[in-house]
Amino acid sequence: MKNLGYYNGKLGEIEKLTLPVTDRAFYFGDGVYDAVMCRNNIPYLLKNHIDRIFENAHFLGIVPPISKSKLEGLIWELCPLVDGTEKFVYFHISRGSGIRNHEFTKTPANLFIMIKEQKIDNIYEKMELCTQNDIRYAMCNIKTLNLLPSVLCAENARKNGCGEGVFVRDGFVTECSHSNISILKNGKLITAPADCHILPGVTRAHLIEAAKKHGVEVVEEKYTKNELFEADEIIVTSSSKLARGVKKIDSRPVGGKDEKTLLLLQNEIYGSYINATQI
Ligand code: PLP
Predict the structure, then answer these.
(1) Could you give all domains of the chain from N- to C-terminal order, each with its CATH number?
(2) Average of pLDDT values for 147-158?
(3) CA-based nearest residue to 7, from 80, 82, 109
(4) Nearest Cα to Cα of residue 46 among 75, 70, 84, 67
(5) Do 235 and 262 touch, CB atoms closer than 8 A?
(6) Ligand 1 neighbours (beta carbon < 6 A)
(7) Tens digits of residue pLDDT in 27-86
């Protein structure tokens, strides 16, 4: 199949799959999601992402309609049905279905899975970014379906010829529209703290681990937009980008002052991905 959609046991090509409009994802974005890369039909770090979606569901009082191990097994089963070597696997759990009412419905939660071919771009090619005000709410640590500010941020970045938009809240850098962002300065890795203003990315955690492994001091503290521009290197991380350096922000050249450490961390992250998905 060129792509795959799965909804509560129903399976088909995404474009042909029909969903009930009573699903609360449709009215309210009332659900949580996660996404992983898959290579050679091996979904990468799937357990971490399943743990996160279950934690997020629990936080919002959503009861997943499937156990962790069954969800893991289902994703492993569905991946080979889609053509390609590298794929993107998206899954979401919405609270349930019912006639539109803000208050929770009592119906079981719905599970949606989508798989499509997607290659990871060359991680060693540096990106261009543009900054924007972080207009999101104070629940960015929960990966909910409510993504409008992120969608607007990503589209604005695209229109400006950039690969990502960087959110800035009260002068401090939080994260990107769908990635985390960290900086290298004087040999240290600085990354915004995992509070309610960022999503604690699986790849961000991996970057922190890689830095510690290689003796790079990690500082989980707020840093300013000015510090972003003055950074030795800038690292954008996400499951589908892995770890990318940055060459320009708001059309101004940035980074390029500690390529050795940047490369060390990138190689660690890329190497783990390749090794874990080797057949
Ligand atoms: N921050 C936001 C807002 C995201 O949407 C994502 C990924 O979708 C990330 C960070 C990166 O998270 P991960 O590394 O778990 O993919």
Answers:
(1) 3-117 (3.30.470.10), 127-276 (3.20.10.10)
(2) 98
(3) 109
(4) 75
(5) yes
(6) 35, 150, 175, 178-180, 199, 201-204, 237-239
(7) 999 999 999 999 999 999 999 999 999 999 999 999 999 999 999 999 999 999 999 999
Instruction: Name the token pair of 219.
Output: 């500082």
CB-CB neighbours of 273 under 10 Å: 20
Model pTM greater than 0.85? Answer: yes
- In the Cβ-directed half-sphere of 63, how many Cα atoms lie within 13 Å? 5
Average pLDDT over residues 163-176: 98
Catalytic site includes residue 143 = yes
Q: Distance between CA atoms of 179 and 199, rounded to whole angstroms?
A: 8
Mutate to test the pocket of ligand 1, among 88, 139, 145, 180 (most ligand atoms within 8 A of CB): 180
Q: Which two tokens stand for residue 263?
A: 């490369």
pLDDT at 195: 98
Amino acid at 40: N
